[in-house]
Amino acid sequence: MTSFPVTLYSAALVLPVTAPPILDGAIAVRGEKILHVGERAWVERSLAERGVPVHHVHWDGVLTPGLVNAHTHLQYTGMAEVAHRTYQGFEDWITGFNPVYQRGHDWGADAAAGAAMLVATGTTAAADIVTDPEAAHALHDAGLSGIAYWEVMDWTNADWSAHGRAEVEAALDSSPTVPAPASAPTRRTPWRFNRCWRFRTSSASAAAASTSTWASPASSASSPTRPASRGRPRGSAALSSLRQAGFGTSATDYVDHLGVLGPDCHVAHGVYMSERDRAILRARGTTVALCPRSNHIIGLDNPPVAAYLREGSPIAVGTDSLSSSPSLDLMGEVKELMRIARVQGYSGDDLAERLLTAATLGGAHAMGIDEGPHRTGYLAVGARADLAFFDVPVTTITETLTTLAEAGDGHAAATIMGGRARHTSARFTEQTGAAA
Ligand SMILES: [Zn+2]
Question: Which superkingdom is the protein from (predicted)?
Answer without folding.
Answer: Bacteria
